[in-house]
Amino acid sequence: xxxxxxxxxxxxxxxxxxxxxxxxxxxxxxxxxxxxxxxxxxxxxxxxxxxxxxxxxxxxxxxxxxxxxxxxxxxxxxxxxxxxxxxxxxxxxxxxxxxxxxxxxxxxxxxxxxxxxxxxxxxxxxxxxxxxxxxxxxxxxxxxxxxxxxxxxxxxxxxxxxxxxxxxxxxxxxxxxxxxxxxxxxxxxxxxxxxxxxxxxxxxxxxxxxxxxxxxxxxxxxxxxxxxxxxxxxxxxxxxxxxxxxxxxxxxxxxxxxxxxxxxxxxxxxxxxxxxxxxxxxxxxxxxxxxxxxxxxxxxxxxxxxxxxxxxxxxxxxxxxxxxxxxxxxxxxxxxxxxxxxxxxxxxxxxxxxxxxxxxxxxxxxxxxxxxxxxxxxxxxxxxxxxxxxxxxxxxxxxxxxxxxxxxxxxxxxxxxxxxxxxxxxxxxxxxxxxxxxxxxxxxxxxxxxxxxxxxxxxxxxxxxxxxxxxxxxxxxxxxxxxxxxxxxxxxxxxxxxxxxxxxxxxxxxxxxxxxxxxxxxxxxxxxxxxxxxxxxxxxxxxxxxxxxxxxxxxxxxxxxxxxxxxxxxxxxxxxxxxxxxxxxxxxxxxxxxxxxxxxxxxxxxxxxxxxxxxxxxxxxxxxxxxxxxxxxxxxxxxxxxxxxxxxxxxxxxxxxxxxxxxxxxxxxxxxxxxxxxxxxxxxxxxxxxxxxxxxxxxxxxxxxxxxxxxxxxxxxxxxxxxxxxxxxxxxxxxxxxxxxxxxxxxxxxxxxxxxxxxxxxxxxxxxxxxxxxxxxxxxxxxxxxxxxxxxxxxxxxxxxxxxxxxxxxxxxxxxxxxxxxxxxxxxxxxxxxxxxxxxxxxxxxxxxxxxxxxxxxxxxxxxxxxxxxxxxxxxxxxxxxxxxxxxxxxxxxxxxxxxxxxxxxxxxxxxxxxxxxxxxxxxxxx
Length: 927
Fold this sequence. Notes:
single chain; alpha/beta; Arc Repressor Mutant, subunit A; Rossmann fold; 6 domains; 5-stranded parallel beta sheet; 3-stranded antiparallel beta sheet; about 5% strand; transcription; BTAD
């Protein structure tokens, strides 16, 4: 039984192909086969099949696919369930055509792969490589091209094929088959117009076939293509080959004698691979593809692996290097450059070069003294060799550059806490950023370290350990080590220790500096500039989960340009991630460590941060809802950046971006002694949360505000919050609680002699009563509110109250009176520019026109109301109006029109999580 991936995906038994129906089943089978007999997590399989947006039924569907594939493969033991996923367990080393191809290609390209004469060795290599290439039946993974998570593997297999084709051409050239080889090489160079290796082989084949002019023309075509596409000239090897063709160098002839020195024993310096390595499947596949690129490239391939401290850069590099070591027959070099050593002892590149030269058996007395001479000798030794070089823990690009080979064939993997941008820009290094493990990968790591039985027995504790360790591999490994050395202690106990220690850091000490999370973080922290270190410390005070540049600038008390520069320094050092343009975050353990470093300036920085959010939120809510009364704010502290919010759209966008931050600030501000900021921030959030129908959040923030106001003794603020709470509770149908809060608000406003506050509260009481169908009582409160607003000269709220009265008259059946009152309200609201009040008034007019039989005018008014509410972002009210519009269409016998309105309402309700979505869904099913 064999799974075939080098073309359409299928299964063969005794050489007979068997179709695997269904693209998703093929994707599951391919992902398992690509796993090379290792466990493939269910998260990885789901990603391979459905990408980033799997359905809720993905796990059940995956299990059905696995069950079906077991039948195709011949039994349950062919795909074995093994936490945290499945493993393809076909017998033998040739379970996939990819495994066979890789084995044959290694055999056909290894030195000394055949016995006997040189001619016999080359002939055997040709036979083996042709056998390997015959396994390709088309494009690899042809059926599922474009499936998330498998594209990198398809690319790697294409590069592997090209590597085999190039190696085959080289062997045939050695056998003197230059004339027969020309058509094949011409086809390959057409398909790969920038590949210098293939063009060099074609030039040599043409020259040996007596066609030197065509060989030179091939060089000129390549030179032109490189200049046009990349702005580059051909490499030195091709330039030397052109010169040799021009002078008809005898060394190009097949019969020219070649003297080769005996190769020294290949160095093998890779350190021990980590046990229980988990995750990063896509990055491993990308590295696999680089191996083939290195074999076909015209220069050394360099990959720069970067990531925050503790994310597992070294583990990934060493794990992968052991996986592919046999593809580098001339050796594997490794050095820890100590770029972020706790003692500050950064390795000099000259010292690293000395170690590499010793690895190639160079006597100590022959090692040159200077850096440049050592680098020259090093590059000379590596010329023509295939060596894997791991440069671990690099400080910067300057430390790395002298250690790069100069000729093709080698692959260099650099790991660093910095992003090594100069190396990417100047040397063309391939950047590979490492991030935290996914939740599934983190569980997989713990399972591999502690055993499936132990983790399966305490899933809740495993989930908490993953969360407390912030999915950071170093932290998870330390936690797993503590648990492994205490097998009699429950995982719940270990989780509790993480929960009870300071930010989790106290419990994450593995016994030495390399396994102490604090120590590992400190090496990167000490490498920052003074200003960068200060910014990093102060960011630890931010409540999270992320922040923008203005908030960072306010924390540090610096201008926006300086803040951007300091944030860029932290991003380059991988102590911070810019996860979306202009928004930054770091994981919880780094946040805890940063906060621990703060001593001076803590209180002032927190005050500046809260001032930034409060003043910007106040400006935003006044743009969002012109009907809200502004509250008096104290002057912001020096160094605070306040964003100038322009218009309702910009205000809504700002609230959306800062949503989680603002909620966390409201609930955490009391601990900072900032009760005044807490209640005012809660007040600024009221409109935003109300419009999105997030009433639970609204009640929670208002409750926090009331507690803060009681502590500071602000009676007017308490009146405001009681009124807001009463309105929100009434929206939820909790009328007794709502009435209590609204009565308290009335009493407080009356005691303060605040008629406008009383008027607003009467308006809210009127709304609550009309929801309860107590329309005449509601009308009395609306009329009382109007009198108070009129006496205060508040035109905007006079207009809103007129519309409320108009709505109530409609409920009492006096629709003409509604047209009169709401029509007057509309004119006033348009004059003062209150778009939200205007939207509500169009809704009242629609209801009146509808009952008076003018359905065309009613439709126009409904459309105006819906359009305005949606533009403003008030999805909850927009949905209410859409339901009413749908009801009117349905009553008029227009089922199609009703369905359109109800579907739009359903979209809004589902988006904000409103339970009324179920009622609307039932209406839709009925029509």
